[in-house]
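Hey team,

Filing this mostly as a record. A colleague (T.K.) asked me to run one chain through the structure pipeline before their review meeting, and I want the input and output archived in the tracker in case anyone asks later how it was produced. No errors, nothing strange. Just documentation.

Input sequence:
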Amino acid sequence: MGYKYGVWLVYDPKEFETTHVGHFTITCYMEKEDAYELYKVLKQEYGDMHYIDVDCNRPIIFEKNMYEDDDNNMNSWGYVGKSTRWDFFKNTVETHSSNTNYNFSPYPHTSIEYVIIGKKKLHPIQQINKCVLCKMELVDISSDDPTEWKVIT
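Output structure:
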């Protein structure tokens, strides 16, 4: 099932080494049409390019099933970020999606490595903090395999 469809802030693959599309999730667990409408609203309201300040000094292991509708049983490690626009995104998502199912990311974060629980261990890497430029994208995250997730805008 994966995470259905959503809106991400996608960064250049040179920023972090991943096997999947590197991103900061804004929303997931949406129907394709709802995600597309939200993407258009967010892009019109805030533009498509955004900076995220990433705390790479303290990599963290994210809890499995961190979203309300999440039952994928995947663990991941990555970094937490900060964005001056995150609360604006949240308010817009809540207002625009009041009659829609969605899961909003509680805070900006990027997963660098995903594993199915019990398959292998995670190996977090400490790096120098950085500011990352991201592009807002509509994404298909319906696969259970993160390497199959793709940008569709």
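Quick notes for T.K.: Strands lie at 5-11, 23-30, 49-62, 74-82, 103-104, 109-116, 130-140, 150-151. The mean pLDDT is 90.
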